[in-house]
Amino acid sequence: MEEQRTRRSPAWGGPEWWRHGPPGWWNRQDDQERGARWPWPSTLVLTAFVLIGSQFAAQAQEGDRAMLDPFARVLLLVGSGVLLWRRRYPVFVVFVTAAAAMLYLGAGYAYGPVFFTVAVGCFSAVVAGHRRVAWIAVGMLWAGHMVISHWLYRWLPPSGDGPADWGQEVVVATWVVAIMAVSELVRVRREQWARDRAERAQAARRRADEERLRIARELHDVLAHSISVINVQAGVGLALLDSDPEQARTALTTIKAASKEALGEVRQVLDTLRAPGEAPRAPAPGLDRLPELVDQAASAGLRVEVVGEAPDLLPGTDLAAFRIVQEALTNVVRHSGSRHARVQVGQAAGALRLWIDDDGPATGEDAGGSGNGLAGMRERAAALGGTIEAGPRADGGFRVLAVLPLKLKEDR
Q1: Which of 6, 35, 144, 301 is the most buried (most CB within 10 A)?
Q2: Nearest to 335, CA basis, from 195, 187, 231
Q3: Cβ contacts of residue 357 below 8 Å, gap of 6+?
Q4: Neighbours of 382 (CB within 10 A)
Q5: What is the pLDDT of residues 333-392, one digit of tens each?
Q6: pLDDT digits (tens, 9 = 90+) for 366-380
């Protein structure tokens, strides 16, 4: 009788943790799990292991447990074969394996690898995040095992069976905790890998968005300025084509020079797209090219006065400062009735300050610029930790004030 008690409670592998269960117990997994391959090889190996191992276990327990019959083999096939769906329907699978094992035990068949199918089903459910449901299934099987081993054994096969040793339940609990710990560890690791992949993908998207905005700003600043000059000179050329051909020729020459410069800068921006990571073929413009801006503005009929001397800035700050001045002067040409502007360069409190003023009046509702122009200037300044203030002056003019952190080349 004592030997029967020992055989009554085998050490069987079980399930998982308990916290949050799924929104719906019978729901399929997400799109990623749906696309997972069917685990045919592992399921075939498990099925063969369960059938062959149960046959050997039945022979070893002959006389103490019922021998395997067709019904027993059907239960073994169901319990192991359903594992083929463990990745797509983990909740369904864990309940089916537990139910098959319960029927197998209640019919008095030999203890053996049938519990391994429950362990695999519970492991899959825990890894998929269905911890509470997995524990419910295992708890039901465990409770059923205790009822059969300590009460219903009198009426269930095999005949002459006795109650199980309560100490063996500790062994069962130990295996449950071990399976749970391994399952939880795998689940946590998978979630961590998923978070890492999501963070890397988000960082890549953020870098792509930042690069896209940078290129958009560059193209806008280059094209807006050059096309404004071309537009003004085209108007001059058309007006003087008959009355003053020589002046019209000068306007066309200015258009040619402005378009050539614009094409060169656009080509430089596009080269960075074709060969990412390579150094640009031409140096980025900086405040040392202010005289060129003054000449281009003069060709568009705007007289620009420059006050102050530009410091030797780092390339990024130098480019941002140049583009801000360029966009501000373009806005004066396009939106101001004044033909005079003033650019002042200064340093104060560790910051580079740029004032771009015109005397007005505004020629339309978009005085001083609007839309992408001012937005691009603010984005450039914010990227360096600076600010842009733009608005009408009390005397009727318009002012753009850029404050950029002062980063000199010698500070590197």
Answers
A1: 144
A2: 231
A3: 341, 342, 344, 393, 397, 398, 399, 400
A4: 11
A5: 878 878 889 999 998 888 999 999 998 777 655 544 445 678 888 888 888 889 999 888
A6: 544 445 678 888 888
